[in-house]
Amino acid sequence: MTSKGAQLVETRKRLLAQIRAHQKLRTAAMSEHIDTELRQRIDSLIKELEDRITRAIASDDRLPETAIVLRSIPGIGRLPARC
């Protein structure tokens, strides 16, 4: 994943932690609508970025093969292989 993708994933992780904290404090209702919108928007941006990366890989003759080789390395998953 690109650095922008990693930033989005980290932002989503922080948002989910904040949502859980608000739920424990029973203050989630105050910001539930905003949290839901933010989570959906971040998820949408991550999906859009992943789709763009997939299309970029598919548009190059050598990149799909390189991605397969990278994914075969232990510790390299689907997303890191897209970097």
The gross shape turns out to be elongated
Spatial gap, N to C terminus = 5 Å
Instruction: Estimate percent helicity.
Output: over 70%
How confident overall, as mean pLDDT?
85
Query: How many structural domains are formed by the residues?
Result: 1
From the structure provided, what is the oligomeric state, counting identical versus distinct chains? single chain
Number of strands: 0
- Rg, nearest Å: 17 Å
Helix/sheet category: mainly alpha
Beta-strand fraction estimate: under 5%
Instruction: Please outline the major beta sheet.
Output: none
Low-confidence stretches: none
- Topology as H/E string? HHH
Alpha plus pi helix count: 3
Task: Give a nutshell description of this structure.
With 83 residues, the protein is mainly alpha-helical. The chain has helices spanning 3-24, 28-58, 63-71.
